[in-house]
Design the sequence.
């Protein structure tokens, strides 16, 4: 079976190529793959050759991605000077035009400027550049204007000159190169499929949604950009939704790896080992009613990758096939297409008439606090997955706005808002409240139960004589806390409603009649629980409890009295500690005063210093230890009382 050239473009910026090469018996066929220099590694990591009786005569050859690197820079505006000055030390052969043409061989030394006397009297002298060469006769010079040829004799130098020329040429067509391989066959004739992948511009999808007598006509178009270095002539083009993993490598770089220093004694043990994951390639065909293995999706009323022939209002286009591989949807043209290099194309993908789509209103306060958007309620009954992309909506033959189609699996629903509806006004108010509903003291802990509520009121005024189905997305104002969910109730006395759960809210669906006002309330509630420990004699969490609760409970009254006793002891202890610090400061000042007075005048200061020392000793050795013992005893007594205390209050 005759194969065809094919290009498959992925939405993540990778393109797969299949090039068909015709071979004949024992003839060597050269295959050149044009590619950008920095994409060679992608070709090397994906290149395969398939075909019965096909033989790779010579493996793929290429210039390494860093092959043109070099220190020599050739100035195209001053060629000889830049070359002679930069390549000093190279072996050269020069031919001059002085008299009989002569040839000199030696080592290039460099350039030299010398003054030349004028040929005409009264004219000033001029400076002439000369090439200086070290020959067997010593240093010799040849004027630049007499130089006929300059040849470099060493292969390494000629290679550097070639690299410099290629780098200059790349300024015209940057990074362009080829991966080349040679194929042959022993058969009379054979076909080889050369397959490879390179980075390419990601394809985009664009939709059109038009209302009609039989429903909404839904069209999809693929925007494909050929930004590669080769023309796509007469190829089968496929576009694929999905995100296969891809990354760049250094396969095309010629380099010597930096060697690791190895310690005989290891610094660390072996760490975690990462293993590459794989995915299933089982193909789920979307074929319905197609013959001979065609993967054309022919759902009722659907013409995939082409318009319905019976609809005269649409231009006829070539049909395409569709299939799904796991989460990938693959659209493939049946006929060959051509997209030249550095050009783009808009390729029709499908046309489908859906009767499930309808126009609705969509309101979300964060989008617009006063207005709703006209939207299309859309259900994907096309028969295959749809990707994310812009969508233009037409109503009554007029552009009614644009939206971003979010992407949808088969039978999945979505809303497509496309313009602001000014005939319906929304007013949103809310009221929040937090109430304590229960307190419980038990087992040395106090638990507070509180109820948080929020009531959001949506007043919707329809100022036009049109009936609407409203999709109101309410965002929760009470967020889940400490694992506690928010309960939501929706009510309205003016219209029938139903609601569905969203990730962070509710979607309320209601009917809004013309020239009517509707009020919808969304009630949120959350029960919060906070438990505070009373261990270590900590009575302070109980101070937030209503005084009447403590007054009517003997165990709590006892805990309160013990807590006051403990706090008073702690205050006395702090008082003594402050007094000790004050006396310590006074002792320092007295010592400094004694140093300033003569010895015969130090008696009074010495007595005062002695009194201070005795008072500090009394406080530190007697009073403070006594208070610490009292504080410890009071804390133990309070802790015991708190552990046995029990109380419960409910609102």
Sequence:
């Amino acid at each position: 079976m005759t194969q065809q050239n094919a290009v498959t473009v992925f939405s993540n910026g990778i393109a797969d190529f299949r090039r068909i090469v015709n071979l004949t018996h024992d003839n060597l066929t050269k295959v050149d793959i044009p590619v950008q220099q920095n994409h060679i590694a992608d070709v090397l990591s994906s290149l395969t050759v398939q075909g019965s009786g096909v033989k790779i005569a010579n493996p793929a050859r290429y210039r390494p991605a860093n092959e043109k690197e070099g220190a020599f820079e050739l100035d195209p505006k001053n060629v000889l000077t830049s070359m002679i000055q930069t390549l000093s030390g190279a072996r050269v052969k020069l031919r001059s035009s002085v008299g009989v043409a002569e040839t000199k061989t030696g080592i290039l030394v460099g350039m030299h400027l010398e003054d030349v006397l004028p040929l005409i009297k009264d004219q000033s002298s001029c400076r002439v550049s000369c090439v200086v060469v070290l020959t067997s006769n010593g240093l010799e010079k040849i004027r630049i204007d007499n130089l006929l040829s300059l040849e470099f004799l060493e292969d390494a130098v000629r290679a550097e000159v070639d690299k410099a020329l290629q780098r200059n040429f790349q300024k015209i067509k940057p990074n362009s190169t080829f991966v080349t391989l040679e194929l042959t066959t022993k058969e009379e004739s054979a076909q080889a499929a050369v397959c490879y992948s390179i980075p390419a511009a990601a394809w985009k999808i664009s939709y059109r949604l038009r209302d009609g007598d039989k429903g909404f006509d839904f069209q999809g178009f693929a925007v494909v950009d050929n930004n590669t270095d080769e023309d796509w002539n007469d190829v089968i083009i496929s576009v694929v939704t999905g995100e296969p993993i891809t990354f760049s490598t250094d396969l095309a770089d010629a380099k010597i790896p930096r060697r690791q220093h190895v310690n005989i004694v290891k610094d660390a043990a072996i760490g975690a080992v990462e293993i590459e994951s794989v995915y299933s390639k089982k193909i789920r065909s979307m074929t319905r009613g197609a013959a001979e293995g065609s993967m054309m999706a022919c759902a009722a009323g659907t013409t995939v990758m082409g318009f319905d022939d019976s609809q005269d209002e649409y231009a006829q286009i070539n049909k395409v096939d569709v299939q799904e591989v796991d989460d990938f949807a693959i659209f493939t043209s049946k006929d060959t297409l051509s997209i030249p290099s550095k050009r783009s194309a808009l390729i029709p993908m499908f046309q489908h008439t859906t009767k499930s789509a309808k126009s609705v209103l969509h309101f979300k306060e964060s989008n617009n606090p006063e207005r709703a958007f006209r939207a299309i309620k859309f259900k994907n009954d096309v028969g295959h997955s749809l990707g994310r992309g812009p969508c233009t909506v037409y109503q009554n033959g007029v552009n009614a706005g644009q939206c971003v189609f979010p992407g949808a699996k088969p039978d999945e629903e979505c809303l497509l808002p496309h313009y602001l509806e000014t005939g319906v006004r929304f007013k949103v108010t809310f009221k929040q409240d937090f109430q304590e509903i229960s307190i419980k003291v038990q087992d040395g802990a106090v638990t507070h139960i509180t109820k948080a509520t929020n009531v959001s009121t949506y007043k919707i005024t329809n100022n036009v004589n049109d009936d609407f189905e409203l999709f109101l997305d309410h965002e929760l104002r009470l967020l889940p806390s400490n694992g506690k969910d928010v309960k939501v109730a929706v009510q309205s006395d003016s219209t029938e409603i139903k609601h569905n759960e969203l990730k962070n809210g509710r979607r309320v669906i209601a009917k809004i009649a013309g020239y009517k006002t509707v009020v919808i309330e969304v009630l949120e509630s959350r029960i919060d629980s906070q438990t505070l420990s009373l261990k270590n004699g900590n009575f302070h969490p109980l101070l937030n409890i209503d005084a009447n609760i403590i007054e009517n409970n003997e165990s709590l009254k006892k805990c309160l009295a013990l807590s006051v006793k403990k706090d008073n002891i702690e205050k006395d202890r702090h008082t003594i500690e402050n007094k000790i610090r004050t006396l310590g400061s006074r002792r320092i000042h007295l010592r400094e005063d004694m140093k300033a007075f003569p010895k015969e005048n130090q008696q009074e200061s010495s007595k005062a210093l002695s009194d201070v020392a005795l008072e500090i000793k009394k406080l530190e050795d007697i009073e403070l230890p006594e208070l610490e013992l009292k504080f410890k005893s009071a804390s133990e007594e309070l802790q015991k009382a708190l552990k046995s205390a029990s109380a419960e209050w409910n609102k």
Notes: The chain has a mean pLDDT of 80. The chain has six helices and 33 strands.
